[in-house]
Amino acid sequence: GAHAPVFGYAGRFSGEKALVTMVDVFRRAKAKLQDAKLLLVGGADPGVSVHVPYWTAEQRVIEQAIRQMGLEDSVHITGVVPNPEDYYRMMDVFLLTSHFEGVPLVLLEAMASGLPTVSTAVGAVPRLLKHGAGIAVEREGLDLNEAEREFFADRMVDVATISRSREMGLMARKTVTRLHSLSQYRRAALKYFEKRIKS
């Protein structure tokens, strides 16, 4: 098809992000999209020294999984970067395989960059993606099981290859813009009422 799709993730390398699962679903998607790449942006947050040993250990586990699956040439780990948003431009599809999330800031950033997303259905993710900005994959347990991994990988292939992915990206950007203006509106309304109460 077109150019080789780049799947991507940005954020912390911590256990609940299930990045070994992400590497595995990427392996399955790559079986159908030979030249696909996976870009993992981030790692240990240098500002939070207490977590560095934990994240470094987590990164080693991820690197080991990449080697075991024979994906060294297809997966690139950037390490911590000053402006992760520069890397969103290199991606075609954003991925989240998290066990749990609230409102993932990295997802909002990816959406603002116009990226369609495939994610586990955690926290606010289904609401964020429901208007067509991406696909939220339901799962039974904390981690994707075998059948769910296959399904997740198939959705990755769909989003990377369908012509709709551009529409999804536009919808993603629109959703974030709407959310952003909503919160601005709420802030303005709050200020107005506070003023009224005080006067």
Spatial gap, N to C terminus: 64 Å
Give the overall form.
globular
Secondary structural class: alpha/beta
Numbering strands along the chain, what is their spatial order in the largest sheet? Answer: 3-2-1-4-5-6
- The arrangement of helices and strands along the chain is EHEHEHEHEHEHH
Helix proportion range:
40-55%
Our estimate of the beta-strand percent is 15-25%
Number of helical stretches of at least 4 residues: 7
Largest sheet at a glance? 6 strands, parallel
Arithmetic mean of pLDDT: 90
Low-confidence stretches: none
Rg (C-alpha, Å): 18 Å
Please count the beta strands (DSSP E, at least 2 residues each): 6
How does this model look, in words?
Helix 2 links the parallel strand 2 and strand 3. The protein has 199 residues and is of the alpha/beta class. The protein has seven helices and six strands; from the N terminus they run E-H-E-H-E-H-E-H-E-H-E-H-H. Helix 1 crosses helix 6. It is globular. The mean pLDDT is 90. It has helices at residues 19-30, 52-68, 85-88, 105-112, 125-129, 146-161, 164-198; strands at residues 6-12, 37-43, 75-79, 93-96, 117-120, 134-137. A six-stranded parallel sheet has the order 3-2-1-4-5-6, with helices on both faces.
Keywords:
199 residues, alpha/beta, six-stranded parallel β-sheet, 6 strands, 49% helix
Compact overview of the structure:
The protein has helices at 19-30, 52-68, 85-88, 105-112, 125-129, 146-161, 164-198, and strands at residues 6-12, 37-43, 75-79, 93-96, 117-120, 134-137. The protein has 199 residues and is of the alpha/beta class.
